[in-house]
Amino acid sequence: MSVPILIFSVLLVVTSLMLGLMVLLHKGRGGGMSDLFGGGMSTSMGGASMAERRLDRMTVIIGVVWTASIIALGLLYRVGG
């Protein structure tokens, strides 16, 4: 296993764990599993708070890094890196 493949593999594992954690931290919007366990009771009519927006941005950034690492690994395996 080459060094770039090892680096992108570790990056993929770390971002996978972080992405799962970020998704679980989001507030339920209703109509899903969050309602089943009582998460739908605390809906607010106001917009998203600053923390929610920051969490959304971080989730998108981690998702982009996750996707890029999958593409990089695919290209490295195809080239034989």
TrEMBL record:
Coiled-coil stretches noted in the UniProt entry, renumbered to this chain: none
Membrane topology, from the record: Multi-pass membrane protein
GO cellular component annotations of the record: plasma membrane
Compartments it resides in: Cell membrane; Membrane
Membrane-spanning residues: 6-25, 58-77
Keyword RNA-binding: no
GO molecular function, one term: protein-transporting ATPase activity
Keywords linked to the UniProt accession: Cell membrane, Membrane, Protein transport, Translocation, Transmembrane, Transmembrane helix, Transport
GO biological process, one term: protein secretion
Main location: membrane
Pfam families for the chain: SecG
Domain of life of the organism encoding this protein: Bacteria
InterPro entries attached to this UniProt entry: SecG
Keyword Disulfide bond: no
Family (UniProt): Belongs to the SecG family.
Role description: Involved in protein export. Participates in an early event of protein translocation.
Name of the protein in question: Protein-export membrane protein SecG
